[in-house]
Structures are given as C-alpha cells and as structure tokens.
Design goal:
Blueprint: H1 3-42, H2 44-52, H3 66-93, H4 106-129, H5 168-176, H6 185-208, H7 214-236
Helix pairs in contact: 1-2, 1-7, 3-4, 3-5, 4-5, 4-7, 5-6, 5-7
C-alpha cells in the first residue's frame, strides 16, 4: 500500500469515527427525551416536590430576591445583545471595505441564526409554549393559584399562551453556547464551562421563581439540544445537506 492510499484509508477511518460519535449524540438525546418523558409522566410528584422546595409562606420568595431578579433581567439583556451582535456580523459580510478579521464564514453565522429561529423561536415559543397550555407552578392551586397540575406533553386549555412547557429562557441560554465558536479560540474552552454554569443558574432561578417545573427546563435543554445537533450536522458534517454553491454570495 503506497503512502497516498494509506493516507486516504486513515482519513476515511477518521471520518467514520467522527460520524459515529455525531450519530451517537443524537441517539443519546432521543433516549434521554424518551426516558425523561416516562419518568416525569409516571412520577408527577417529582415536579411538584421540587417546586415545593422553593415555596414558603404562600409564595416563592426567591422571586422577590433582589440579586436573583437582577440576574434574571441581566440574562434577558445578554440574549438581546447577542442577537444584535449576530445581526451586525451579518451586515458586516456585505460591506466591501470591512476588515477581514470581522468577516466570518457564512456557515458560522448561518448555523446560530437558524438555530435561534428553529430552537428558541419555532419549537420552544411558537409550538410548545403557545400551544401546550401547561400552567406555571405559581398558577396552581397547591401554590396559591387557580389551576390544576398538568403532566408534561399533555395538552391543556388552562393556559392561553406563554405557558410553562418548556422554558424559554433556558432555551435562550442554551443557544448562547452556539456563539462561542465565533470568539477567539483562546477563550472558547473557558467560556464553554461558564456557559454551562450559566444555563444551570438560569434554569435554577426559573424553577425557584415558580415560573417553571423541573421537567420544563430539562425538556428545554434536551429538545433544543436535539435541534442544535441536527443543524450542526446539516452545516458541518461531510455529508451535510446544505452544499455551498460556487455562485453563492456567502463565500468561505
């Protein structure tokens, strides 16, 4: 076997290995979604019990905590700023005199853009939150409200819109991770861990405020993760569906 053939075999083997790992991620996400569905639908007291840990004297006191509320407001602002920066980066692609260091390859911009539209936008808000009708914890009778508990994935008419299932702010925090590859490589590993902690804190506060159940944030992470994984494969796998046309205005 000559050197060229051996290199080709090695490259092919490496691609197959990467492909298997990517496929395994999707399978694990689907399995975790299925398992979570079985667990939370079989043991409704799990959702109620976790929310009850934050309920005291007829209210969710964490929702009145100054620092917690400030963090929540700041997290919403961070997401808005991130979206504006992404829009600005798209605009810079079409400015001829723009420095090359500010012009990103079209796939690196299109991936987080489409992920935002399909994950937090379409799936989380338009499909689930506005149609499933699950009341938030602080709307339940057991927590001082007027509604009854609804299992995850059960359609209900108790909530007309912007409901509990799933967490929108958790999905937005998940999406912010996709912007890390746009930053200098020296920052990326550290910011990945910061991003994971950030997702945990945002989700914790949403439960602590009585705005979401534990299942709401878990399904938000898993479902959006599945959307992001699918889009990542479309854009960055060797067998991707979206092929870049030589005549495309978005050039590498």
């Amino acid at each position: 076997m000559n050197e060229r053939s051996s290199g080709s075999v090695f490259a092919s083997s490496k691609r197959s290995c990467v492909e298997s790992k990517h496929s395994a991620i999707g399978l694990w996400l689907i399995m975790l979604i299925t398992l979570s569905t079985v667990v939370f639908r079989s043991f409704p007291q799990l959702d109620i019990g976790i929310s009850h840990l934050f309920f005291e004297n007829g209210e969710f006191p964490l929702g009145e905590n100054f620092l917690a509320r400030r963090f929540r407001s700041a997290s919403v602002t961070v997401t808005k700023i991130a979206v504006l920066i992404l829009v600005a980066l798209w605009i810079l692609r079409f400015i001829p005199a723009c420095p090359k260091m500010l012009v990103y390859p079209w796939k690196r911009l299109a991936f987080p853009t489409l992920a935002l539209a399909m994950g937090p936008g379409l799936l989380t808000n338009l499909v689930l939150k506005n149609n499933w009708g699950r009341p938030r914890p602080y709307h339940l009778e057991i927590f001082g409200g007027q509604n009854t508990f609804v299992l995850p994935w059960t359609l209900s008419e108790q909530c007309p819109g912007n409901c509990s299932f799933v967490s929108g702010e958790t999905s937005s925090a998940m999406w912010l991770l996709l912007l890390i590859p746009l930053l200098p490589q020296i920052w990326q590993n550290r910011l990945l861990w910061v991003g994971i902690v950030y997702i945990f804190v945002v989700s914790f506060l949403r439960i602590g405020f009585g705005a979401h159940f534990l299942s709401d944030v878990i399904f938000s992470v898993l479902l959006n993760g599945l959307v992001f994984w699918f889009l990542w494969r479309l854009f960055f796998n060797e067998d991707r569906i979206f092929k870049q046309s030589p005549s495309s205005p978005f050039q590498e």
